[in-house]
């Protein structure tokens, strides 16, 4: 039986930083809001090795229900979502199960043609980080980034851990492997943290300049549809409400709205119109920077990172309660 | 701490699927399928007629929709039974008054318990096997002979009673063993409806020959929308109409037929406050005009003819 690691009370990746009185973020061309859509393009295995900390499927092999609908996403849903994004001039930032490069290269080619961004979401969404040694996780991350490079020519900039399964080293390893493979272009942002509506600097053991780019769980179609069980039309309204607020606040300082999607959720026949209409509404506004995760991270590193670090160090810090374990 | 080396080995990381059941294929790249009379959208209504035993074993897992309270769970037993006593007649009327046929996925045990009802369903539509009862799941690791027997009993009862060939299958809870598809082919089943990985039929390979996989969508199934997601009846109607609009438009734009599959349960949709929404959904769909109301057997026949 695998042994559980010693636990920390706080991840330590970022400092407390109040949302008010931050230095103003000005997105390119004076945009108030950076919009990025992050389609997860995933491959779930029918019969993965059983991770000791998390079951891949609730039923004995073959778990055809869960497997089937995810396969539907690649067979049917991807094309539909891509056509909607094309219609509104949105380039997807793909959270990629990188084994999909081997399984379904046709999908990869379609996204390469469109100059979509690929970032790493592990090898398979049925291989969890839980229980991996640091060496194993480093190898898995390296494999995923090399696979993206080999199949698309892109230097992977971002990470979302497979099935949001993390270790304490995940972000450090991703940033380190990124630098080893691609220098300053590789491994510069994470989507794994949900603490803010603006990008924030992240502490890493290497001291590398590294950013958290907001990737909203609340707007994530799977969270909305499967966990929160909202109706399709309500999901469309949530997207519009989220946009309205972030767009209004973006007048003071630029905000980020991310719509993370899954081709097996958002593209279902009873759901796609709600997504389509929300994008129609959002893209009809001026001063929206329609962009990708990498471009947000790069812009932030270049224009906002240093002033952010200075502002954070001048603000109040979280006090550790007396008597708390060191 | 580390994982066993197998966790970083990927023996099925290859082109196509990670199994050999069917070929990887994108719907948008397939040859268009032409439905009867040149209609764009086939309408397939599947009505599940189910028996949930009061003495539920739940082995190795309880059936979705089954007993959840300590024995005797009269609440769930009788509410499911309601579907076969009351709800089904509302559904049959809703179909007949619109001259619609349907498939009826029937638990084999109902042919013994309620032969008149099953015969009636057979007169109004196509019977497909739905396992022996909802508490007899097909599951990975089950005894092969036991599965063979469950399928034989179910198909035997339904075939004898209705006189239909009964060549379609829907596993209880859509759960299968590793070899359910082989067992089905052995017993003259030609299509099954368990997998939800496509919007159109496709060929599914088994050691004993091939089956046609029929896409009976779970996404707008009444149980999923109303019972799992707890959406309102009105929302079920909206979602069904939205799915119809979308698929019809995709069919018309792509030039290839599409399929709208409505999977319903009389114990749920047949309630007095819900049946009207089914009727409204059917009226909405039929009013589109460019619709081919049909049964899964007809779809399979037409689809197979255009594949080879």
Distance between the termini of chain B: 54 Å
Number of helices of chain B: 10
CATH architecture grouping of chain B = Alpha-Beta Barrel
Q: What would you give as the CATH superfamily of chain A?
A: Glycoside hydrolase/deacetylase
Please report which band the strand proportion of chain B falls in: under 5%, 5-15%, 15-25%, 25-35%, 35-45% or over 45%: 5-15%
CATH architecture of chain A: Alpha-Beta Barrel
Number of helices of chain A: 10
> How does the major sheet of chain B shape up?
5 strands, parallel
Return the average pLDDT of chain A rounded to an integer.
95
List segments of chain A where confidence is low: pLDDT < 50 over at least 5 consecutive residues.
none
Notable characteristics:
heterodimer; A: 326 residues; alpha/beta; TIM Barrel; five-stranded parallel β-sheet; 10 helices; 9 strands; 39% helix; 11% strand; B: 308 residues
Structure write-up:
The complex is a heterodimer of chains A (326) and B (308). With 326 residues, chain A is of the alpha/beta class. Chain A has one domain (28-48, 59-314): TIM Barrel, CATH 3.20.20.370. Helix content of chain A is 39%, strand content 11%. In chain A, strands 1, 2, 3, 8 and 9 form a 5-stranded parallel beta sheet that branches. Chain A has a 4-stranded mixed beta sheet with strand order 4-5-7-6. In chain A, strand 4, helix 5 (170-182) and strand 5 form a beta-alpha-beta unit. In chain A, helix 4 (134-152) crosses helix 5 (170-182). The model of chain A has no long low-confidence stretch (mean pLDDT 95). The model of chain B has no long low-confidence stretch (mean pLDDT 97). In chain B, 40% of the residues lie in helices and 14% in strands. Chain B is globular. In chain B, strand 1 (41-49), helix 1 and strand 2 (103-106) form a beta-alpha-beta unit. In chain B, strands 1, 2, 3, 8 and 9 form a 5-stranded parallel beta sheet that branches. A 4-stranded mixed beta sheet of chain B has the order 4-5-7-6. Chain B is α/β, with parallel strands linked by helices. Chain B has one domain (33-305): Alpha-Beta Barrel (TIM Barrel). Chain B has helices at residues 74-96, 108-113, 115-124, 144-162, 180-186, 222-228, 233-254, 266-269, 272-287, 296-305; strands at residues 41-49, 103-106, 126-129, 168-169, 191-192, 202-206, 209-213, 258-264, 291-294. Chain B is built from 10 helices and 9 strands. Chains A and B meet through helix 1, helix 3, helix 4 and helix 8 of A and helix 7 of B.
């Amino acid at each position: 039986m695998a042994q559980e690691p010693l636990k920390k009370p706080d991840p330590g990746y970022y400092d407390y930083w109040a949302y008010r009185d931050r230095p103003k973020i000005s997105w390119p061309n004076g945009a108030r809001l950076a919009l990025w859509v992050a389609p997860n393009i995933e491959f779930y295995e029918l019969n993965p090795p059983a991770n000791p900390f998390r079951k891949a499927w609730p039923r004995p092999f073959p778990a055809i229900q869960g497997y089937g609908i995810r396969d539907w996403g690649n067979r049917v849903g991807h094309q539909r979502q891509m056509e909607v994004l094309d219609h509104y001039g949105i380039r997807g930032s793909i959270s990629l199960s990188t084994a999909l490069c081997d399984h379904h290269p046709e999908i990869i080619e379609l996204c390469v043609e469109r100059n979509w961004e690929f970032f790493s979401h592990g090898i398979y969404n049925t291989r969890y980080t839980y229980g991996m040694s640091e060496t194993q996780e480093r190898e898995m991350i390296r494999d995923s980034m090399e696979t993206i490079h080999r199949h698309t020519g892109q230097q992977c900039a971002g990470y979302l851990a497979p099935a949001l399964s993390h270790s304490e080293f995940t972000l450090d390893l991703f940033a380190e492997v990124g630098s080893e493979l691609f220098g300053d272009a590789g491994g510069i942002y994470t989507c794994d943290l949900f603490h803010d509506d603006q990008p924030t600097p992240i502490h890493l053991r290497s001291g590398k300049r590294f950013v958290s780019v907001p990737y909203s769980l609340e707007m994530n179609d799977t969270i909305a549809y499967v966990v929160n069980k909202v109706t399709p039309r309500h999901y469309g309204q949530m997207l519009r409400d989220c946009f309205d607020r972030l767009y209004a606040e973006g007048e003071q300082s630029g905000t980020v709205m991310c719509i993370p999607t899954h081709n097996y959720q958002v593209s279902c026949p009873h759901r796609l119109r709600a997504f389509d209409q929300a994008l129609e509404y959002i893209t009809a506004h001026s001063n929206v920077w329609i962009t990708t995760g990498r471009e947000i991270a790069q812009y932030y590193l270049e224009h906002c990172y240093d002033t952010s670090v200075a502002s954070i160090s001048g603000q109040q810090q979280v006090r550790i309660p007396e008597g708390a374990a060191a | 701490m580390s994982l066993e080396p197998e966790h970083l080995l990927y023996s099925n990381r290859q082109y196509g699927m990670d199994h050999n059941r069917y070929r990887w294929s994108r719907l948008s790249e397939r040859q268009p399928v032409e439905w009867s009379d040149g209609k764009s959208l086939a309408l397939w209504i599947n009505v599940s007629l189910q028996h949930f035993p009061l003495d539920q074993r739940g082995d190795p897992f309880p059936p979705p929709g089954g007993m959840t309270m300590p024995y005797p769970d009269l609440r769930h037993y009788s509410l499911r039974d309601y579907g076969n006593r009351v709800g089904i007649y509302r559904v049959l009327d809703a179909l007949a008054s619109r001259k619609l046929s349907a498939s009826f996925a029937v638990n084999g045990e109902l042919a013994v318990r309620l032969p008149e009802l099953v015969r009636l369903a057979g007169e109004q539509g196509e019977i497909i096997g739905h396992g022996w009862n909802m508490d007899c799941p097909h599951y990975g690791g089950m005894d092969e002979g036991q599965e063979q027997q469950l399928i034989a009993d179910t198909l035997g009862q339904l075939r004898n009673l209705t006189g239909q060939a009964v060549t379609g299958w829907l596993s209880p809870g859509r759960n299968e063993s590793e070899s359910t598809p082989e067992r089905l082919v052995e017993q003259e089943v030609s299509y099954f409806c368990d997998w939800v990985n496509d919007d159109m039929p496709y060929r599914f390979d088994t050691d004993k020959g091939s089956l046609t996989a029929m896409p009976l969508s779970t996404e707008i199934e009444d149980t999923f929308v109303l019972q799992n997601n707890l959406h309102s009846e009105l929302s079920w109607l909206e979602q069904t109409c939205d799915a119809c609009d979308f698929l019809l438009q995709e069919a018309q734009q792509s030039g290839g037929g599409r399929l709208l599959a409505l999977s319903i349960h009389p114990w749920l949709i047949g309630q007095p406050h819900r049946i009207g929404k089914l009727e409204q959904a059917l009226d909405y769909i039929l009013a589109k005009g460019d619709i081919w109301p049909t049964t899964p057997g007809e779809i399979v026949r037409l689809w197979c003819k255009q594949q080879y």
